[in-house]
């Protein structure tokens, strides 16, 4: 009887192990399918990937830094030439005047 019970529990343990392995395989397959579906939906609605966002953010940061450096150089050159930099309101007026002249 002990041998029969031992064999029964051994078979039961094998069955449980195989079932657990199969369940993990099914879980991985479902995870893969869900991830693919979510990616497709996000692409369809135009959501960018995190990596793409980070690249563009870094490019924007570099552009801002370059803009700041160029503004500093312009200020130095204007100071050397004795030119007063335009104020924000006069810059708007000038762009408005040029837009009106274009029409």
């Amino acid at each position: 009887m002990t041998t029969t019970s031992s064999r029964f529990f051994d078979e039961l343990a094998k069955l449980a192990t195989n079932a657990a392995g199969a369940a993990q395989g099914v879980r991985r397959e479902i995870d893969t399918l869900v991830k693919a579906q979510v990616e497709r939906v996000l692409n369809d609605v135009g959501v960018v990937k995190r990596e793409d966002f980070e690249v563009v953010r870094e490019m924007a940061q570099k552009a801002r830094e370059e803009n700041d450096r160029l503004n500093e150089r312009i200020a130095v050159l204007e100071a050397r030439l004795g030119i007063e930099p335009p104020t924000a309101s006069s810059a708007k007026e000038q762009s408005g005047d040029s837009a009106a002249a274009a029409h």
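Residues 1-47 form one domain. The two ends are 104 Å apart (CA to CA).
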